[in-house]
Design goal:
About 50% of the residues lie in helices and about 5% in strands. The protein is mostly helical and about 270 residues long. Helix 1 runs parallel beside helix 4, helix 5 packs antiparallel against helix 6 and helix 7 packs across helix 8. It starts with about 35 loop residues before the first strand and ends with a helix.
Length: about 270
């Protein structure tokens, strides 16, 4: 089977009518709810948001899983004053919030998943932005040339990119976050101070995803990542996260997301 990245065709809008944000969910039952717009068949970048929503206990609608065409309708509507570039984006309290790290910044401030003081909030946000850089590099192991083309059409480039990723880039990111945990003045339980933040939830997803995509390498690396391994287990055991992971809301890893298992790539180096 040939595997390509999620690359939807977005058509131009044919109208310029400004939308009432309560219309964006397309039904009165959804109005005023927190609504996540993300592709229905993958975890992708939307999963970092889902984990935060689940842990915060926020009632939300995963709109793409109900009607994937709603995402395209939103993206092409020229009447939206603050249009997002691409999913994921969140509609909450009549705000349209684009970009994973930006959404998590909002959720952290409103639902206790980040420190409320400026220094703590900026440190947390900075860690999430670093994770966003890591996610791009993970994705580029299998699509280093063109996101809209098939993996099989860029296999040679993917092998070269993955060789460097496994030898240099992944260890650099992982050791960095291991050090963040080790140097936390409050201890290595959480990444920021003495409480769970959205960064911990995202680190859980990174570890889980790399275990799926590169199991051979993760098995070797984890001996040097005791704090990250413990954090993954700690987050997985949180009651709300544990329930989510066992529910149909958690989309399994597959061949269309950011984390993809290609045995030939895991066998490199």
């Amino acid at each position: 089977m040939r595997h390509r990245a999620r690359c939807p065709a977005i058509r131009s809008s044919r109208h310029g009518r400004p939308l009432d944000l309560t219309d964006l969910t397309t039904s009165s039952a959804h109005a005023m709810q927190t609504t996540l717009y993300y592709w229905p068949e993958i975890q992708g970048r939307g999963e970092f948001v889902r984990l935060a929503l689940e842990q915060a206990g926020v009632p939300y609608v995963d709109r793409g899983r109900e009607d994937a065409t709603a995402i395209e309708r939103f993206l092409v509507d020229a009447g939206i004053a603050t249009p997002p570039f691409a999913p994921p984006f969140l509609v909450a309290d009549k705000l349209v919030i684009p970009q994973t790290a930006n959404i998590l910044l909002y959720l952290g401030q409103h639902y206790g998943l980040a420190p409320q003081d400026e220094a703590g909030g900026l440190w947390t946000h900075g860690l999430q932005l670093t994770l966003a850089d890591f996610v791009v590099e993970i994705h580029d192991t299998h699509h280093p040339i063109a996101a809209c083309e098939y993996y099989e059409d860029q296999r040679d480039e993917a092998h070269r990119r993955t060789t460097d990723f496994l030898a240099n880039r992944a260890p650099k990111f992982l050791w960095y976050f291991e050090r963040v945990l080790a140097h936390n003045p409050a201890g290595p339980t959480w990444a920021v101070r003495d409480a769970l933040t959205y960064v911990d939830l995202s680190l859980f997803q990174i570890v889980a995803g790399l275990r799926y995509a590169f199991p051979r390498h993760m098995q070797r690396w984890e001996a040097r990542l005791p704090h990250l391994v413990a954090l993954h287990a700690r987050v997985a055991a949180l009651p709300r996260i544990a329930a989510y992971l066992q529910s149909p809301r958690r989309i399994p890893f597959n061949t269309m997301g950011i984390f993809r298992h290609y045995p030939e790539l895991d066998a490199l180096t």
